[in-house]
Amino acid sequence: MKPYQRIIETATRLFHRQGYNSTGINQIIEEAQVAKGSFYYNFKSKQDVCIASLNARHDYWFGQLQQFISDHSEEEPIICAFSFLSKMNEKEAFRGCSFLNILSEISADDGPILDVIQSHKNDLRAYIASLLPHKDQADHVYLLFESAIIESQLFKQQWPVEKAKNIVTSLIT
After folding, report:
1. Which domain, by its residues, includes 74?
2. What's the pLDDT score for residue 173?
3. What is the pTM of this model?
């Protein structure tokens, strides 16, 4: 694997596991097993690696979501999206949303990272709308989806996802 990819994968894992502010460039360099020069050849700053990491996480997360829905085609797609949240909670030990976790750590004037986070959330809103027969329900379902992620992270339990899934089921039937 090339240094660029090792840096991205390492930064993504560390940011998700321990947070943006608690992860230093030296730790990324060490765990990615790259030279300091390779890091700075590929990235000018921690902000740059964070943006690349979030973009990679976006691609990974949406790819996993779409594959999960495809693999469970017998289930209503929007309901299946909530089942995907439960799967991700188990897989990632209730770490929640990488984007919102980083949002809580950046300063108000960190526009480039904020832009990536907002873009991800706008894509999620649009994707959720695409799964619904009635588009006027999209923002309601999106907000339930987001709150299920946050509350399941807070309580380290699946009940928020299950409650949100039940509410959405009643909305669409």
Report:
1. 47-172
2. 87
3. 0.95
